[in-house]
């Protein structure tokens, strides 16, 4: 009797098809696209002189042709400029800056993802 139950359970276990989880699929973390700011300028996703804002819509700096930004005091990378305004040594400028695109207030980071979808 125990042998029949054991055999029946063993058979049922073999029939189970496991679904891969997020770890097995390596889908837990999506790495952001590596993209220099200058590429966004060259592709006219950003315009030279375009104003970048903080999340509260305060104008912070303007985009330069080489991909750096200027607040009329200093010319820095987006990371160093965002750090300057947050009183930090460094910060992720992709997350800090926003812009107006077709009258829509969007993050610089979302523009980077949009570019990578189109240009891949």
Describe the structure.
- The chain is of the alpha+beta class and 120 residues long.
- Helix content is 41%, strand content 17%.
- A hairpin with a 5-residue loop joins strand 2 and strand 3.
- The relative contact order is 0.14.
Described by strand count, sense and barrel closure, the largest sheet is: 4 strands, antiparallel
Strand-pairing-aware structural class: alpha+beta
- Determine the mean pLDDT: 87
Strand order of the largest sheet: 1-2-3-4
The share of residues in helices is 40-55%
Distance between the termini: 62 Å
Query: In angstroms, what is the radius of gyration?
Result: 25 Å
Q: Strand share of the residues?
A: 15-25%
Per DSSP E runs of 2 or more residues, the count of β-strands stands at 6
Global geometry? elongated
Order of helices and strands: HHHEEEEHHEEH
The residue ranges in which pLDDT falls below 50 over 5 or more consecutive positions are none
Number of helices: 6
Key terms for this structure?
120 residues; alpha+beta; four-stranded antiparallel beta sheet; two-stranded antiparallel sheet; elongated
């Amino acid at each position: 009797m125990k042998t029949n139950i054991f055999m029946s359970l063993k058979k049922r276990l073999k029939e189970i098809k496991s679904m891969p989880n997020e770890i097995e699929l390596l889908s837990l973390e999506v790495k952001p696209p590596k993209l220099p700011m200058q590429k966004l300028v060259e592709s006219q996703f950003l315009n030279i002189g375009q104003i970048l804002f903080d999340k509260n819509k305060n104008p912070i700096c303007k985009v330069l042709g080489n991909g750096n930004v200027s607040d009329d005091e200093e010319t820095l990378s987006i990371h160093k400029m965002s750090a300057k305004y947050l009183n930090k040594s460094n910060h992720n400028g992709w997350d800090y800056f926003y812009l107006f695109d077709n009258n829509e207030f969007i993050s610089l980071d979302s523009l980077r993802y949009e570019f990578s979808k189109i240009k891949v």
